[in-house]
Design a protein that fits this description.
By secondary structure, this protein is an alpha+beta fold. It has four helices and five strands, in the order H-E-E-H-E-E-E-H-H. A five-stranded mixed β-sheet has the order 1-2-5-4-3. Strand 4 and strand 5 form a beta hairpin. Belongs to the Iojap/RsfS family. InterPro entries: Iojap/RsfS/C7orf30, NT_sf. Pfam families: RsfS.
Length: 121
């Protein structure tokens, strides 16, 4: 008896990951959400999303919920930096990079300025 052929499930593309990230950030009451279209500008990702949480606890909860949602959507190899401090959590979801900051840390690093002139989504 021949085993059944495996059917691969299509993984979400960059636009679908971006939509999931934006929805999750909004659901968790993230503040000042900015999405930057990096396509054709760099090879690190297609999109960058920057958001703020009100406190370390809020930043940590936003990051944790987003990581869970990405994994539930089938995104593999999600990489995370910045936990447990939660001043700035970076989540690398392959084609979408997410930065979740406390407001004062976001103001200090001002990474949006680095991408000034790049179209926002």
């Amino acid at each position: 008896m021949t085993p059944p052929a495996t059917v691969s499930e299509a993984l979400p593309d960059a636009a679908e990951i971006l939509a999931l990230v934006q929805a999750r950030l909004e659901d968790d009451k993230s503040e000042d959400i900015v999405s930057i279209d990096l396509r054709g500008k760099t090879s690190i990702a297609d999109y960058m999303v920057i958001a703020s949480g009100r406190s370390q606890r809020h930043v940590g909860a936003i990051a944790e919920h987003l990581i869970e949602a990405l994994k539930a959507a089938g995104i593999k190899h999600v990489r995370v930096e910045g936990q447990p401090a939660c001043d700035w959590v970076l989540i690398d979801a392959n084609d979408v990079i997410v930065h979740v900051f406390q407001p004062e840390v976001r103001n200090f690093y001002n990474i949006e300025k680095m991408w000034a002139g790049t179209p926002r989504s």
